[in-house]
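Risk register update: the risk of archive-format incompatibility is retired. Evidence:
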Amino acid sequence: MVITHPRPACGRSLEQVVADCVDAGAPAIQLRDKTADGRALTATAARLRATTKSAGAALIVNDRLDVALAVGADGVHLGPDDLPVSAARAIAPPDFLIGYSTDDPEEARRAAAAGADYLGVGAVFGTRSKPGLANEAIGPDRVRRVRAASRLPCLGIGGITLQNAAEILDTAAGIAVLSSVMSASDPGAVVRSLLRLAGGGRRRP
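Archived output:
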């Protein structure tokens, strides 16, 4: 899963970068923009939905269930401070994907019981994408423990690069990447390299 940044470092528009990523085979894009208001986020999501749909990739919207439903996205990704998973599941269509962020096995179990479809687990190697987490690395073993507790598909996230992605893939989890792709001069090339490591093609999370 490629997680977006509103201003990719390569200097091209977000829409162009997402098109490159899905053309390279990325199975899912998560639209993440903590600064956009609802109107702007909906407009961006609608444009990205057209791109991902034509490529057969999933679009997940971070935090905002209302925006995800409004544009016909494939799912929403929620965190501990967002709408509860159970509330989202109660109003979402049956085939709508609900992701949840946790690195705690017990919380992962509760999220699975509430109706989550997959989990984002991190920060595995630390991350600069979220304040305060640069030095907080949970490590691949925690991903393995969360996956075993929840019995859900898990995506390791946080500081994942071409150099360390195999450590997460060895836990039987997938990967979610932000900086490695969004800060690259050629985002599509990074996606292709990560997919070669994963040995995977296009599939939903």
